Amino acid sequence: MEFTAKQIASYIGGKVEGDDNATVNTFAKIEEGKAGAISFLSNPKYIHYIYDTESSIVLIDNSMVLDKPVKATLIRVDNAYECVAKLLQLYESAKPKKKGIDPLASISPSATVGNDVYIGAFACIGDGATIGDGTQIYPHAVVGDGVTVGSGCIIYPNVTIYQGCQLGNNVVVHAGAVIGADGFGFAPNTECYDKIPQIGIVTIEDNVEIGANTCIDRSTMGSTVIRKGVKLDNLIQVAHNVEIGENTVMSAQVGIAGSTKVGAWCMFGGQVGLAGHIHIGDKTFLGAQSGVPGNIKGDQTLIGTPPMEPKAYFKSQAIFRKLPELYKEINELKKQVDELKNK
């Protein structure tokens, strides 16, 4: 499908500078632009590419000031990054969706499957499972007994959803993710560890996206809960009885120990680790590799282990790099003090 600059500007509320009738049919990074492509520019570090890009149309922030003319048609908007996201969503929604049930899929006679559903080859739908309208379940995915999957969901290949778990509408689960495996519960005795049965479930609300190979454990009792709008990157571990608040986002390799409660609208960088049985307030922003041993009040930006304000953290890191020299100087001073005492 082709769209003109005028049509795009109308859709995203932008202003055209150049040819209203310039057309595009694909996307490209500004540094890899080509004829018929639309690119975007929101980071000043990339501004030099706009003068030579071959892209036909470039979305650009209103705040960007150009030193010389460009050959591409520009569409100026308040936030080019947000607008290109809207266009990508439109582009994705225009793609034809898979429908139909592959004859090699295994579906229990007691399962309920909605309308316009796609179930790929070797996917397995367990006893009493419910699949909502328009949901797509790709090959080799396993939806366990009694699982509920809402409408408009996408379950990619090799996803495993254990028995009894509940997924809302428009949930996306990427390849290899495991929803509802047992929480890590063992009680030590004199000879070994006794397994504590994990009899709860996982509840995932609407509009959640879960990255590849991420694991969300079922609760010991009750439910592990992922609230609506949460976005989890790849390779994240969410332990039993954790609750993650609405619209919180987490980068790869975050680990959350059991029974921790994370507030709404939080943002965690890669490899953040949270201890168990703690509470993280709303709108907490944690830098990459932060280690959190205790509760945190909301509306803070922190980094480090234990987390501290970024300014204090980077000052501390600067001092930390000088510790070998400081240690040497202190030893020299101690020697001098001892010599003076001896005299």
Computed CA radius of gyration, to the nearest angstrom: 26 Å
Strand content: 25-35%
**Distance between termini?**
91 Å
Q: What order do the strands of the largest sheet run in, or round the barrel if closed? A: 8-11-14-17-20-25-28-31-34-37-39
Tell me, rounded to a whole number, the average pLDDT: 96
The total of beta strands comes to 39
What helical percentage do the residues reach? 10-25%
For the structure shown, list the relevant keywords:
343 residues; alpha/beta; eleven-stranded parallel sheet; ten-stranded parallel sheet; 4 helices; flat
Q: TL;DR of this structure?
A:
With 343 residues, the chain is α/β, with parallel strands linked by helices. The model has no long low-confidence stretch (mean pLDDT 96).
Outline the structure in words:
The longest helix has 20 residues, at 323-342. The chain has 343 residues and is an alpha/beta fold. The chain is flat, with a radius of gyration of 26 Å. The strands form 6 sheets. An 11-stranded parallel sheet has the order 8-11-14-17-20-25-28-31-34-37-39, with no helix packed on it. Strands 9-12-15-18-21-26-29-32-35-38 form a 10-stranded parallel sheet, with no helix packed on it. A 9-stranded parallel sheet has the order 10-13-16-19-24-27-30-33-36, with no helix packed on it. The chain contains 4 helices and 39 strands.
